[in-house]
Each structure stands twice: as C-alpha cells, then as structure tokens.
Design brief:
eight-stranded mixed sheet, Aminopeptidase, Rossmann fold, alpha/beta, 503 residues, nine-stranded mixed sheet, globular, L-fuculose-1-phosphate Aldolase, 3 domains
C-alpha cells in the first residue's frame, strides 16, 4: 500500500442566530471520529475536521491531526481550500442545510415569540469532485429516519450520482440504538453492502473496505496516435442484437466487447445509453496489460472495464465475447467475494481467481454487488439465440394456457440464466414482475435464487391463480393481495415501506 492521506469530517456544524445563540443538529461525530482513528491505525496520514467539542467529548485519537470548525462556511474553507491533495475524503459531518439570517448583538429575551428567518447553506459535497478531480476517493454520508432499506439505498444512489462520489454510507436514525450502528455502503458501480454491529466494529470494517478499494491498479485509456482499423464488426453487431433482444443493457451501466482475429478488441463506449447502441458505435482498442494502458481510436473513450476484459481474454483465449450487465436474473457458476471498482486490475484478478476456485472454466460469474459477467466461446451466441427464442415461446404458450397472453409486452422480457444457459423468462416492469420457470427448472434451487433477487430489488410478483405458485412465494415471506381489475394476484416481497425524511 502506497502512503495514503485522508481527510475525515465529523460532527455537526452550528450556525449563529445572534451573538449568544446558535442552532445545530444532533450529530455526535462518533462514526467520523472512529473512522479517522481506524484510518490512522492502518498507517494512513489522517486529518479530522470537526468541532472542538467533538474532541473534548471523545478524546484525541493516536496519529490523527485535528482542524476545527463551527459553521458550515468554516468547514467549507477547511475542506475546499487545502494546500494538500488527499487520496481519501470521508465527508461524514452533519452540515447545516440552513442557517439563520444573522442578528448582531443579542436578541432581547423578553419576547413571547420569535420568528427566525433561515437561508440555505451551499452544499459542500457538490464541489468536492471539481476541486480534487477524479483520482480522489470521495465518500458521502446519508442519514434518513424511518425509511425502508430500499428507500435508503435509493436516496444514497441519488446523492452518489448527483455529486459524482465513489461511495455513500447510508443509515437510518431509528436503527442507531443499543450501541449498534448498521450502515449500507452504496458504491458507484451499483453495490449496496451492509455493515452491522457496534460503531467501532463498523468503522474498522468500513475502513478496511475503503482502503481495499483505494489501493488498486487502474487501467489508463489514451487516444492512439495510430489509427486502429475501424470497419464495422459483424460479430459485435450480432452480439449487440442478441443483448438488445434480451434487454440486458438498458442504461449507461454495463458493457460488451468482442475479440477480433487480429488482436483488436471492439468495445462499447463509456457513459452512454447502451440500449441505443449500434455496431457502428463499437470502439477498436488494443491493450498493453503490462503497463495497464488501453489505446483507442476515435473521440469517445471505451468502457472503463476494457482492461479487465482484456485480462480475462488473456486468461481464457477461447473466449470471443464478454458481456457485463446489471440487474440480471438467475444464478451463475461462479461468484466473486469482493466488489472492486470498475476498471482495475484487481477486479480481473478476483474474477479469474473465483472461476478457478469453483473449479470450472465456464465464464459465467456473479460479481458480488456488481451484476453479472458472461464470457462466450464460439457457438455460444447462436446457442443462446435458440434458447432465448425457445424460452419466450414456452412463456407465451404458458400465458395462453392461463389466458393472460394479452398482458405481455415483448420489450419487458429478460432471460433467467442458469450459468451460460437460459432457463426461464421474467416479464419485468420497474417494480413488479411475472416470473416463468418451466417445470424442468423447478426444484433445482434456481427459483429460490430468483426470489432472493426479487426481494433485494423490492419487486412484487404478479401471477394468475392457475399458475399454482402463490404458496411457493408465500413460503418465502411474500404477502398476497388480489387485483379485481386484471384478475391477478400480487405477491409483495417481505419488506415494508415507511415514509422517509431527508433529501
């Protein structure tokens, strides 16, 4: 591990009403204080920005430097206008969203009532990425009260996207009791990793998690000085057509690559809506894995995972295409154990190590907290086309039998994978689904895996009475209701939704 520098903010800011009064919040600063201590204990050069009262209450931590703030503006100056550039910023402080319009002197205390006008304070976290650039690991923190786990994750993801963060640590005020401090670490690639236990334990595990994601080897993408061959790649177009038909790449996440015979890899572009990609959008690249350099042609950068795909192609030369997608359904032959960031050598090493651990050469991998990855050999694409066509036909015939075919929208169908094979179909709306597994796929554990994914994503299931699956879902904790309008049962996952506060 290279010598790292970290800045941690902790505690709550306070804003003056007049010369003797102020408003603040209930933040204790304990989690931020514990994180600073754990970072320093691992050898990270750590500075904690906090109110002086935080240190007075909780004590000085060994090898931690302290700088003090009172107001949001004080903290903003300490954080934004630093002479040094940290490698890690953990912005755990509870910064006042509003401050009083300041009255100088003392407001008389003999008034029966008092109206205090508040004005919004600038969001410090929104400026951190612009100030420190893409190389710095920046984590925000999100506190709600009375929220469901899904609401908490959604709020964290919104904050992460809005402020271009690497991670948001989210928790719910109502769960912070009896010395316990459970949190969910929401990562940029879509993960939601829970940490539970008392505060010191959570801080220790979070610190190890963060350092492991920071201390990595990135691939670098550079525009090639020499033009790479850029003729339309029919193999890329054929793969893309299948992926579109399966609706696996529906937003900016995920990627697809195809290896050509001349050593060039055709890769999907970075940060674009993959659902509208065509074969002409493929970017030709070459990769020097020794220097971790991706050379590309054109004006658009290739997928951040290009270097990872190259290392997998290197390890498994029989592969002709790789697809990485989020929010898929089913089970893979392999599952990784740690969610590395996209585009680092360690991600490829983890994938290869996991495949070898499970004792097979089939590249059908569940990336823990990060979706799925399929590596396809010669003939796999055509086989999947046939399997997908057969699965859709079987689903259609099933719906005919239960008199529900008219409810199908072809654009909402996704496959259920069992390794590198297609075993069933999900008719997938934003928050509800119809699941079809043929009889031969039942009793294999695949259905239970799909149910876990439904619960994790907060999906309800719709089913007709004739399908005879209601008891199976209820056995897994789903609750049942009947919709008279469409004569369908709705089975809701075992999670409750409670009104959430906070932005």
């Amino acid at each position: 591990m290279e010598h790292l520098r970290a800045v941690v903010t902790a505690g709550g800011s306070s804003e003056p009403i007049d010369d003797v009064r102020k408003i603040s919040n209930i933040s204790t600063g304990r989690l931020g204080h514990a994180l600073a201590s754990e970072l320093a204990a691992t050898g990270v050069d750590t500075t904690e920005l906090c109110p002086r009262s935080t240190v007075e209450r909780l004590g000085n931590k060994a090898n931690v430097s302290y700088e003090y703030f009172d107001t949001a503006e004080n903290l903003r100056h300490l954080l934004i206008h630093r002479d040094d550039k940290p490698d890690i910023i953990l912005h755990a402080a509870a910064v006042s969203d509003y401050k009083p319009v300041r009255t100088y002197g003392k407001i008389p205390s003999d008034q029966e009532s008092l109206i205090i006008q508040l004005e919004r304070t600038p969001k410090i976290i929104s400026d951190l990425r612009e100030r420190y650039g893409p190389e710095v690991f920046i984590a925000g923190f999100k506190l709600l009260s009375g929220a469901s786990e899904i609401e908490l994750i959604e709020a964290a993801r919104a904050q992460l996207t809005r402020n271009r963060l690497n991670m948001v640590v989210a928790n719910d005020l109502q769960n912070l009791k009896d010395g316990q401090h459970p949190v969910i670490a929401v990562t940029a690639e879509g993960g939601a990793i829970p940490f539970s236990g008392e505060r010191t334990k959570v801080a220790k595990e979070l610190t190890r998690f963060i350092i492991r994601r920071v201390d990595v080897q990135w691939f670098r993408s550079i525009s090639s000085q020499e033009a790479l061959p850029n003729e339309p790649c029919s193999a890329f177009g054929d793969m893309l057509s299948l992926i579109h038909d399966m609706h696996l790449l529906t937003d900016k996440s995920g990627n697809i690559s195809v290896k050509t015979n001349d050593g060039i890899i055709m890769v999907s572009p970075r940060q674009v809506d993959k659902s509208s990609l065509t074969a002409q959008d493929a970017i030709p690249v070459t990769v020097d894995t020794a220097t971790r350099t991706v050379s590309y042609s054109g004006n658009r950068k290739p997928s951040i995972d290009t270097g990872v795909s190259s290392l997998i192609y290197q390890q498994y030369p029989e592969l002709e295409a790789i697809v990485h997608f989020h929010n898929g359904w089913g089970r893979m032959n392999t599952i990784t154990s740690f969610p590395y960031p996209c585009g680092v050598k360690e991600e490829a090493d983890e994938i290869i190590r996991s495949i070898q651990k499970y004792g097979n050469n089939s590249v059908a991998v569940e990336l823990v907290h990060h979706g799925f990855l399929l590596g396809l050999k010669a003939g796999d694409r055509r086989r999947l086309e046939v399997e997908w066509s057969d699965a859709k036909l079987a689903f259609s015939e099933h719906l005919n039998r239960v008199d529900k075919k008219s409810a199908v929208d072809e654009t909402l169908l996704q496959p259920i994978f069992d390794g590198l094979s297609i075993a069933g179909v999900v008719h997938c709306h934003p928050d509800k689904a119809v699941v079809y597994l043929p009889r031969q796929a039942r009793g294999t554990g695949l259905g239970s895996q799909v149910i876990k994914q439904l619960i994790k994503r907060g999906y309800s299931v719709q089913t007709a009475d004739a399908c005879n699956v209601r008891d199976y879902y209820k056995k897994h904790g789903f609750s049942e209701s009947f919709n008279n309008a469409d004569k369908m049962y709705q089975l809701s996952p075992p999670a409750h939704r409670i009104y959430a506060t906070g932005d």
